[in-house]
Specification:
Bound molecules: iron/sulfur cluster
Order of helices and strands: HEHHEEHEHEEEHHHEHHHHHH
Largest sheet: 4 strands, antiparallel
Shape: elongated
Helix content: 25-40%
Structural class: alpha+beta
Radius of gyration: 22 Å
Distance between the termini: 56 Å
Length: about 375
């Protein structure tokens, strides 16, 4: 591509533009398939993605899009990966709240939906890149920006872009920022200079694997999403398998346990993004309050929040299980009412929770 600037300088400028747009980290990965990409089709074939059918999206020739960037965007030559620190700090799910409070994953505490926030910054980066190309009299490159919704596995490219290593808990971990990172990617037709992946710094640690209450890690670096509380409380529709319910504790939306125990998160700095400051009502929410929400209140309170992805009855199903796991007999009347709910799924989970609270179930078998 004709240009007054070498590609290494353009690459450096792009990363500078990303930090000007408000990202904490930015790096560049190539588009070649990696060992992690080759693992993906087997993971899908083993049913580890559960009901997350979007992960199985295929191109017109039937190839899994996420298994290779050449299946999804053959024109792309580089992947710019940007990371935004969303760490709101304490409390942590592992030592927080009382037995009458639930847990909403901290990525969903923010004032605004992170998809919007991250995409806004990616668009600013994209505009800056196009301006730079214009100034250098280069043809405008092709670009696509994604936050979660693209046919790419962001974590893999984040690793190869030098953002962090993929930990045994399968999260991307940065030595200075920990794992409370939102990732956004910009694919581009520019052949940029790639960064290097950092070393794996998990060492002999197994805290995340040991702490998972539903045994969702069949092995280090492997996640069985169908056993993960994040999947069960957010993506799973309908019935949650009984053998996993006790292990879910009081998590009503998502789960932070395997990140909360990670030593690399202990000193992680707090986010500076004003849009990502926490909404107090979402931190350790009162379970009785959540159980009593009307559908109108649910829509109003969780407008612009990732929590709405669980849907009204999905959240009430999760809350019913949390009430059952609370050990608080004061919730018996709430659960009795939920057990007569017009939504059959909510009612069935509430009946299980009643038996759990009354001590009529056998000991948990999830772990
Ligand atoms: S998010 Fe929770 S349930 Fe999922 S793997 Fe981590 S600790 Fe286990
Ligand atoms: S808890 Fe330990 S093993 Fe797990 S991701 Fe963190 S450093 Fe790695």
């Amino acid at each position: 591509m004709p240009s007054g600037l070498p590609l290494s300088v353009i690459s450096k400028n792009i990363k500078h533009l990303a930090t000007e747009a408000g990202f904490d980290l930015a790096g560049i990965a190539g588009v070649a398939d990696t060992a992690e990409h080759r693992f993906f089709p087997g993971w899908i074939a083993d049913g580890r993605a559960g009901e997350m059918k979007y992960l199985e999206a295929r191109n017109e020739t039937g190839q899994l899009k996420r298994a290779s960037l050449s299946n999804a965007a053959p024109w792309a030559r580089s992947v710019v990966v940007c990371a935004l620190n969303y760490n709101p700090g304490e409390p942590y799910s592992t030592h927080a709240g009382t037995t009458t409070q639930g847990w909403i994953s901290r990525y969903a505490w923010s004032q605004r939906d992170y998809h919007e926030v991250v995409l806004g910054k990616l668009r600013a980066l994209e505009a800056g890149l196009l301006q730079m190309c214009e100034r250098q009299k280069m043809p405008a490159p092709r670009t696509w920006c994604y936050v979660d919704t693209g046919p790419v596995i962001e974590r893999i490219f984040a690793q190869y872009a030098g953002i962090g290593w993929i930990g045994k808990n399968t999260c991307i971990l940065n030595e200075h920022l920990g794992s409370w990172l939102f990732l956004g990617v910009m694919l581009t037709s520019l052949e940029l200079t790639p960064d290097l992946p950092p070393p794996d710094r998990c060492g002999s640690c197994t805290r995340c694997l040991d702490a998972c209450p539903t045994n969702a890690f069949p092995a280090p670096y492997q996640l069985d999403a169908t056993r993960c509380i994040s999947y069960l409380t957010i993506e799973k529709r309908g019935t949650i398998p009984e053998e996993l319910r006790s292990g879910m504790g009081r998590q009503v939306f998502g789960c932070d346990i395997c990140q909360d125990v990670c030593p690399w998160n202990r000193e992680a700095p707090l986010t500076k993004a004003p849009e990502l400051q926490p909404r107090v009502a979402f931190v350790n929410p009162d379970l009785g309050w959540l159980a009593g929400l009307s559908v109108e209140e649910f829509r109003e309170i969780f407008r612009g929040s990732p929590v709405k992805r669980a849907r009204f009855n999905g959240l009430r199903r999760n809350v019913a299980l949390a009430l059952g796991n609370s050990g608080e007999e004061r919730f018996l009347p709430v659960l009795e009412e939920l057990s007569r709910d017009e939504d059959g799924m909510v009612a069935e989970h509430a009946r299980w929770a009643l038996r759990r609270l009354r001590g009529e179930l056998r000991r948990p078998s999830a772990k």
